[in-house]
Amino acid sequence: MVKIPDFDALYEADPDPFHVRSSFYEQRKLGLVMDCLTKPFYAAAWDPACGIGELAARLAARAERVLASDASPQAVHLARRRCSASNNVEVKQLTQPQRPPSEKDPFDLIVVSEFAFYLTDQVRTATLEVLHQVAAERAELVAVHWRHHPRDGYVSGEQVQEEVVADLEPRGWRHVVQHDDRDFIIDVLELAGR
């Protein structure tokens, strides 16, 4: 039986429990995610499991507006602190597959980073449906996951990446970038049209 981590407890015990700010793996991965983006600037970006806000802080330089959200109240607190210097970043508490409330404009960039393996099959499917619904025409969706199977996750990152592509391609998304690394996979898909 899978025992999903208590993310609030993790973030309370350590303000960077996944070593996003200090590990070479995390810093390299974040740099490659930014390098895989195919547009210089985005109107609205969403980081739906932002953790401590490192990726959201980087996206702030490439987007007019960034929504960073997380299910953990402690992660939301840390992300707000991390992104406090960026006036274009809003941080909210949202649980997948919750749709952002009262979003007027669709997102032209969505980043699914290192969280989908913690979701059940049903929640992963529902989350992809929500992400598709809030995407603008010609939006990009970036999926990036550690390719292996976390001991506290439902599936491997490799399986998550395959599911994302298999779910979104029939909906009109097309593969534009794939970075296949020894330890992680990045897929960038673009919504060709509605």
Helix content: 25-40%
Any idea what the radius of gyration is? 15 Å
Structural class: alpha/beta
The sequence of SSEs as H and E is HHEHEHEEHEHEE
Instruction: Give the low-confidence spans.
Output: none
Our estimate of the beta-strand percent is 25-35%
Q: Tally the helices: what do you get?
A: 6
Number of domains: 1
CATH superfamily: Vaccinia Virus protein VP39
CATH topology: Rossmann fold
Structural overview:
The termini are far apart. A seven-stranded mixed beta sheet has the order 3-2-1-4-5-7-6, with helices on both faces. The mean pLDDT is 94. Helix content is 31%, strand content 28%. The chain has 194 residues and is of the alpha/beta class. Strand 4, helix 5 and strand 5 form a beta-alpha-beta unit. It has a single domain, classed as Rossmann fold, CATH 3.40.50. It is built from six helices and seven strands.
Summarize the structure.
The protein has 194 residues and is an alpha/beta fold.
What is the strand and helix layout of this fold?
Blueprint: H1 7-13, H2 24-36, E1 42-47, H3 54-59, E2 63-70, H4 73-82, E3 89-93, E4 107-113, H5 121-133, E5 135-146, H6 157-168, E6 173-180, E7 184-191
Parallel strand pairs: 1-2, 1-4, 2-3, 4-5
Antiparallel strand pairs: 5-7, 6-7
